[in-house]
UniProtKB/TrEMBL annotation:
<keyword id="KW-0472">Membrane</keyword>
<feature type="transmembrane region" description="Helical">
    <location>
        <begin position="174"/>
        <end position="196"/>
    </location>
</feature>
<dbReference type="GO" id="GO:0022857">
    <property type="term" value="F:transmembrane transporter activity"/>
</dbReference>
<keyword id="KW-1133">Transmembrane helix</keyword>
<feature type="transmembrane region" description="Helical">
    <location>
        <begin position="259"/>
        <end position="277"/>
    </location>
</feature>
<feature type="transmembrane region" description="Helical">
    <location>
        <begin position="60"/>
        <end position="82"/>
    </location>
</feature>
<dbReference type="GO" id="GO:0005886">
    <property type="term" value="C:plasma membrane"/>
</dbReference>
<keyword id="KW-1003">Cell membrane</keyword>
<dbReference type="Pfam" id="PF02653">
    <property type="entry name" value="BPD_transp_2"/>
</dbReference>
<feature type="transmembrane region" description="Helical">
    <location>
        <begin position="202"/>
        <end position="223"/>
    </location>
</feature>
<feature type="transmembrane region" description="Helical">
    <location>
        <begin position="6"/>
        <end position="27"/>
    </location>
</feature>
<keyword id="KW-0812">Transmembrane</keyword>
<protein>
    <submittedName>
        <fullName>Branched-chain amino acid ABC transporter, permease protein</fullName>
    </submittedName>
</protein>
<dbReference type="InterPro" id="IPR001851">
    <property type="entry name" value="ABC_transp_permease"/>
</dbReference>
<feature type="transmembrane region" description="Helical">
    <location>
        <begin position="128"/>
        <end position="146"/>
    </location>
</feature>
<feature type="transmembrane region" description="Helical">
    <location>
        <begin position="89"/>
        <end position="108"/>
    </location>
</feature>
<feature type="transmembrane region" description="Helical">
    <location>
        <begin position="235"/>
        <end position="253"/>
    </location>
</feature>
């Protein structure tokens, strides 16, 4: 039982880190309908920057700040490819993550950086409580932003760019803002993970796009028809549930090498459930109208 509790606590801590990634990816995937694949390069970018700055003896919080800033710049690079060079959104993200692979290696000087014996951001505080505070602060900041005029227009841009233009605004501006904010938060998540696990690795970003999607899709399934849960809350809950399922599977004997397969199956399962639920609700609505 002690082993199970320890495994679940670890899953919650990692889930809180992933929740920040999910909230960031939510801005582009859910609101802008912009499927940004640069996530898989930005996430390790944040980890490597945080790790290198800590290795240089700087305050670990400066490492986190550096990760956030450079993550935002990576989002700006993706926007540059998309808008200025007229590259397809999917290809723009692929170009960015491909470039970041080499950049991350140059930043770290190696494919793996260890932080053993170095000071981290937790300062001997309980990691779960520290990460919970960070996740809540990020949630509050995003909720506040989305209530602003700029945030509202960002949400509209994905569904109705013509309306944004009719309001005298340039929808590309909100795509740029969304990409910058999204990648800044994703890099923050990577920086937190480097501090949490004590190292940064070049393969950290592999299949992280599925983790982000899984968190968002699972979160959207929770109280699907209710407006009481905000999208940020759904992203946090989705990331926690996703990690708890994965952690439980490993505890029960799953080979860690099969975790990516399990992740894909989790996503497929929730998508199928959502589609089934949506189809069932539609049939019920048609039946009620007929009566």
């Amino acid at each position: 039982m002690t082993g199970l509790l320890s495994s679940m606590l670890s899953s919650i801590e990692v889930g809180l880190i992933f929740s920040i990634l999910a909230m960031g990816y939510m801005l582009t995937y859910k609101y802008l309908k912009y499927y940004d694949l640069s996530l898989e390069g930005t996430y390790p970018l944040g980890a490597f920057l945080a790790a290198v700055l800590i290795q240089q003896g700087l305050n670990p919080y400066l490492g986190i700040l550096g990760a956030i800033i450079c993550g935002g710049l990576a989002g700006l690079l993706t926007y540059f490819f998309y808008k200025k060079i007229k590259v397809d959104p999917l290809l723009s993200g692929i170009l960015t993550l491909t470039m970041l692979y080499s950049i991350n290696l140059k930043i770290g000087g190696a494919s793996n950086i260890t932080l053993a014996g170095r000071e981290d951001i937790f300062f001997n505080l309980p990691k779960w409580s520290f990460l919970l505070i960070i996740a809540i602060l990020v949630k509050i900041a995003i909720d506040y932003y989305l209530k602003s005029e700029v945030g509202y227009l960002l949400k509209i841009t994905g569904n109705n760019r013509k309306l944004v233009k009719q309001l005298g605004k340039n929808p590309d501006t909100y795509i740029m803002v969304g990409l910058v904010l999204s990648n800044a938060l994703i890099a923050l998540s990577g920086g937190l993970m480097a501090n949490y696990q004590g190292f940064a690795d070049i393969q950290m970003g592999t299949a992280m796009i599925v983790t982000g999607l899984a968190s968002i899709i699972i979160g959207d399934t929770i109280m699907k028809s209710s407006d009481k849960l905000k999208d940020t809350s759904r992203a946090i809950l989705g990331a926690l549930i996703y990690r708890l399922i994965s952690g439980l599977a490993i505890y029960l004997g799953l080979n860690p090498n099969d975790l990516k397969l399990v992740t894909a199956l989790i996503v497929i399962g929730f998508i199928a459930y959502n589609n089934y639920l949506g189809s069932r609700n539609y049939k019920r609505m048609v039946k009620n109208v007929g009566n």
